[in-house]
Amino acid sequence: MKKFFVIALVALAASMTMNAQDEVQPYFTVDQLPDLIKCLPAPPAFDSPEFANDMMRFAWGKQQRLDPERAEIAKRDAVWSYEALLAELSVPFGVFISAENTPEIWKLMVTSLATTDPMRVAPKAYYHRQRPFERFEDKMLTDEENDLRGEGSYPSGHTMRGWTAALLLAEINPAAANDIYARGWMYCESRVIVGAHWQSDVDASRVAASIGYAALHNSPEFREQMAIAQAEYLVKTGQASSIEEVMKAKSPKNNKKHGKRGHSRQGYSQMRSGL
Question: How far apart are CA 169 and CA 230, in angstroms?
Fold first, then answer.
């Protein structure tokens, strides 16, 4: 019976990512990515010191709801869509991210997230951790109880998606990294505030996001699209006249001609400062 339940839960969670995967071609299949069950520790037992911290953070989250501004941010962060997430991160990023306004950045973000999102499915089903609102029969800030009940708390899909997005955007615009990471951190903490996740879910999920982010860089297609997204950012912020101009300046042939190493971080920084 338990085995049947786990299989059914995996199928249900997988279906939640199907729309995104139908629209884009992921850089890797989930089988080609690291297995989070093998990478991450099990969630804390209910009688462990780690869970005592979860309890304290659960109380902290409920206290945060008393701040109307923070509560409203947490509600916005609960919306499960690429549009909602990237609209929030657009503020520290400095450019509004959308399919229309920044098609190359949008393509990178959506394809990357559609690649890494499914990594959460197997550990959610394997551990089937009870969520805070379920354990305490509590009401969430966002009225998500019916959607999330029985879906598994570990790891946090929102946290994985939000922190992966922050890592990607900071790579595109390193100058804004501090603000991007700060907003990404807040986005992750919102899951504790609304009562959807334990703090240990969120902490482990930031690590999971970093694992997925690192794996993306093994894809030549990802690396190429990242370079194009970086070029688009320079164009959008008036630091270059065209994506083609930036890509030509970054090409190995051009760098060799000028005695520079192609695709190095130093070479890219030098190229940016000269625009």
Answer: 9
258 flagged as catalytic: no
Residue whose C-alpha is closest to residue 160's, from 206, 126, 110, 197? 206
Residues 162, 74 share a domain: yes
In a domain, 211, yes or no: yes
Task: Note if 158 is an active site residue.
Answer: yes
* pLDDT, average across residues 64-69: 98
Indicate the number of domains in the chain. 2
Residue type, 20: A
Q: Does one domain contain both 149 and 231?
A: no
Same structural domain, 98 and 233: no
* Annotated catalytic residue within 77, 117, 201, 203: 201
Q: What's this model's pTM, rounded to 2 decimal places?
A: 0.84
| DSSP letter assigned to residue 234 | H
Which of 57, 129, 161, 191 is labelled catalytic?
191
Q: How confident is the model at residue 251 (pLDDT cuts 50, 70, 90)?
A: confident
pLDDT of residue 152: 93
